[in-house]
């Protein structure tokens, strides 16, 4: 095992995963024109990828714990890369949407496998630094996706925004021998039988919920498809909880949800990505509509939002000796909320985007490491899967809902004089969400100080094993 190679390979693959999400946003209009389809159908290039990415995150995290971190990571990178290359050559929007949805499953395995590997290889302060890089890499992929994709699209066409990441992913696979092959220790519950009942119900429930929010604004909230999907989600989520309570080796250890700190981190995560995701996806078209710029220049303007990720996450790790990570997380939410309100209230965009960018960068550099470290090491894959599921679900719903609002108010063109007012309305709502979640997170963090649940989980598991041995 080579630690440096493990970090390099993991972060390279991680960069590609969000890059194809944000990069695709620049190409939406071009894809619509080239494939002679509608904007609603083309939006599934982004929504389908995000939906499966979120829907399979918890499943792949559990697979990583049971069948090996490296195996899950490699399978994810392979499937992601192949589907990206397929996306680069298809000529039908349905096939493109399908390839992107399958790529999202590979992306989920890539992220959970990588995070579980890194959590096992590094400990203590080193783990904190590595997960700072982990979060920053994902953020940079989202951040510079529009810029790089704009340059690729103007030079080689929109297909290159999928073909290049696919090729790089396959090259990364060639160095798999440098990766550690950690599996659960003998006797660990994670080596037990896979909870397929829980896997099926959870994935279906989450996918149906996402479908409700993606298609609701387009088809109408009372359409048969939307109502049926909502009913399915309402039935399946309680069924999933019931299955997990009875399972010997559950997909999700429900005790994770008793940790106030973990719940607070998940809430902060959702709020941050619910702002960041829609902005990264729709700011390029917004700037192309409101400013005399090309696709590449519009992508470059998004750096005002994403640029702080180059520096701020590193600074956050340095100042933790003076300012606790908990305080930094709450401050990040307040900054993002204030920046969103500033953008909506004025015609200025540089200052508001920079302010939101700083807040997002603070959260990006801290949240992943804090979430994984808040749980026992043997549950790192499960914790990473659940945490990233909340992240991707928040991002997917944010992109879908804000995209539907923008499309509805611009008559499906993402252009015209109504676009600025539609964006302002969206940012008022997102800003209020961040401020409200900041208050909620502060309360949950305070409650967590009374009972460190991660430790109690470990103590209960240890007690159970001792009792079993004594008997």
From TrEMBL:
Q: Which GO terms describe its cellular component?
A: plasma membrane
Keywords per UniProt: Membrane, Transmembrane, Transmembrane helix
Record's InterPro entries?
Answer: MFS, MFS_dom, MFS_trans_sf
Membrane topology summary: Multi-pass membrane protein
Listed transmembrane segments: 39-61, 73-95, 101-123, 130-152, 158-176, 196-214, 220-241, 262-283, 295-315, 327-345, 351-371, 392-410, 425-445
Record-annotated Major facilitator superfamily (MFS) profile domain positions: 6-449
> What's a single GO MF annotation on this record?
transmembrane transporter activity
Task: Extract the SUPFAM superfamilies matched here.
Answer: MFS general substrate transporter (SSF103473)
Q: Where in the cell is it found?
A: Cell membrane
User: What name is this protein filed under?
Assistant: MFS transporter
To which species is this protein native?
Saccharopolyspora antimicrobica
Output the lineage of the source organism.
Bacteria, Bacillati, Actinomycetota, Actinomycetes, Pseudonocardiales
């Amino acid at each position: 095992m080579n630690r440096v190679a493990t970090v390099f390979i993991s972060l390279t693959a991680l960069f590609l995963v969000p890059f194809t999400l944000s990069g695709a946003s620049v190409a939406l209009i071009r894809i619509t024109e080239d494939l002679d389809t509608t904007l609603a159908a083309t939006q599934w290039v982004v929504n389908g990828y995000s939906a499966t990415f979120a829907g399979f995150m918890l499943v792949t995290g559990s697979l990583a714990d049971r069948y090996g971190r490296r195996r899950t990571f490699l399978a994810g990178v392979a499937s992601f890369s192949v589907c990206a290359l397929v996306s680069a050559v298809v000529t039908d929007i349905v096939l493109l949407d399908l390839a992107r949805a399958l790529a999202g499953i590979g992306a989920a395995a890539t992220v959970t496998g990588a995070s579980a590997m890194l959590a096992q290889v590094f400990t203590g302060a080193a783990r904190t630094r590595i997960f700072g890089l982990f979060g920053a890499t994902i953020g940079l992929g989202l951040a510079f996706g529009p810029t790089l994709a704009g340059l690729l699209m103007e030079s080689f066409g929109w297909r290159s925004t999928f073909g290049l990441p696919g090729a790089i992913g396959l090259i990364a696979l060639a160095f798999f021998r440098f990766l550690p092959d950690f599996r659960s220790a003998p006797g660990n519950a994670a080596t037990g039988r896979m909870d397929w009942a829980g896997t099926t119900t959870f994935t279906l429930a989450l996918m149906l919920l996402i479908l409700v929010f993606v298609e609701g604004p387009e088809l109408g909230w009372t359409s048969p498809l939307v109502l049926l999907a909502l009913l399915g989600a309402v039935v399946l989520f309680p069924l999933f909880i019931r299955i997990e309570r009875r399972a010997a080796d559950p997909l999700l250890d429900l005790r994770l949800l008793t940790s106030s700190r973990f719940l607070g981190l998940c809430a902060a995560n959702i709020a941050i990505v619910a702002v960041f995701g829609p902005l990264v996806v729709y700011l390029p078209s917004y700037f192309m509509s409101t400013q005399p710029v090309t696709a590449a220049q519009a992508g470059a303007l998004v750096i005002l939002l994403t640029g702080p990720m180059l520096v701020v996450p590193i600074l956050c790790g340095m100042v933790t000796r003076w300012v606790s990570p908990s305080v930094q997380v709450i401050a990040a939410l307040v900054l993002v909320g204030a920046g969103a309100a500033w953008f909506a209230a004025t015609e200025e965009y540089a200052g508001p985007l920079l302010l939101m960018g700083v807040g997002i960068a603070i959260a990006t550099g801290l949240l992943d490491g804090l979430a994984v470290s808040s749980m026992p090491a043997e549950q790192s894959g499960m914790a990473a899967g659940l945490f990233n599921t909340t992240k991707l679900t928040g991002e997917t719903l944010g992109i879908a809902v804000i995209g539907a609002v923008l499309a509805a108010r611009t008559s499906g063109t993402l252009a015209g004089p109504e676009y600025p007012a539609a964006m302002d309305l969206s940012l008022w709502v997102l800003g209020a969400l961040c401020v409200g979640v900041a208050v909620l997170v502060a309360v949950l963090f305070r409650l967590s100080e009374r009972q460190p649940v991660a430790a109690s989980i470990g103590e209960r598991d240890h007690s159970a094993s001792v009792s079993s041995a004594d008997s």
